[in-house]
Specification:
Elements: H1 15-21, H2 28-50, H3 52-60, H4 66-75, H5 78-84, H6 86-99, H7 121-140, H8 144-150, H9 158-167, H10 171-200, H11 209-212, H12 214-223
Helix pairs in contact: 2-3, 2-5, 2-7, 3-6, 7-9, 10-12
């Protein structure tokens, strides 16, 4: 399956690819979205810095939401930002000056041109890829053999678990997903306790891999990967 968003980079979502994705220590859907963001910026940054039409389109869209504005800054060079942003800043200047002509006595009537996730191009891309991946994962889990493979994974973050349950085809699959998530959270809790105990006792050499990365796994599976969080 390929995403419909014109800015996306097609990624195969067949069973073999999903099985590989499930080997992550994080959330496979978050990881997939992270790759999507990386691919988007890798292909978009050069025209953003050099192509006038791309810069005009960016200005017409009023840029990205706050989260993806900072994502852009983390990927781009200072030179690229200096070349790509002037048209947007000029558009904002024009819009703010225009607002002075429509003022009333009610301050709340002023609607500033603040970008949000509903109209952010990168947010839209992430929603498309998220929906595509979760749909394919739901199909993947219809097979008993695939569910067995899922038991060896870290599972999904709570947000994507909720999406997957909403797409699940049966009560049996939903029960399976909930029980697996419950088991994983209990295991991570124990890994955290073991890690804390060994650190306190100065037995760091005995810390296992599961105990060593229990902290980031706990946060990712509770809240999702920070790079792809909704603004």
């Amino acid at each position: 399956m390929k995403e419909k968003n014109e800015n996306s980079v097609p990624v195969s979502l067949d069973s073999e690819k999903i099985e590989k994705d499930l080997q992550t220590r994080g959330c496979p859907v978050c990881d997939y979205q992270g790759r999507t963001i990386f691919d988007f910026f890798c292909s978009w940054l050069s025209p953003f810095a050099r192509d006038e039409k791309t810069q005009e389109d960016f200005a017409a869209e009023m840029g990205f939401c706050p989260v993806h504005t900072w994502n852009l800054a983390s990927f781009a060079s200072l030179q690229g930002l200096a070349q790509g942003y002037p048209k947007l800043l000029e558009r904002l200047s024009h819009e703010l000056a225009r607002l002075t002509k429509t003022l009333t006595n009610l301050p709340e009537s002023v609607k500033l041109p603040i970008k949000d996730s509903a109209t952010c191009r990168v947010c839209s891309l992430l929603r498309d890829t998220e929906a595509a991946y979760v749909q394919q994962l739901a199909i993947f889990l219809e097979q008993a053999e695939s569910r067995q493979g899922y038991t060896h994974s870290q599972g999904l973050c709570l947000k994507h678990l909720g999406f997957l349950i909403g797409t699940a085809s049966s009560k049996k699959t939903t029960q399976f997903l909930l029980l697996e998530a419950a088991r994983r959270f209990n295991e991570i809790a124990q890994d955290l306790r073991n890690y804390a105990t060994k650190r306190e006792a100065l037995r760091r050499d005995l810390i296992t891999r599961d105990e060593g990365d229990a902290y980031p796994r706990a946060l990712i599976h509770i809240a999702g990967t920070k790079e792809v969080l909704d603004p």
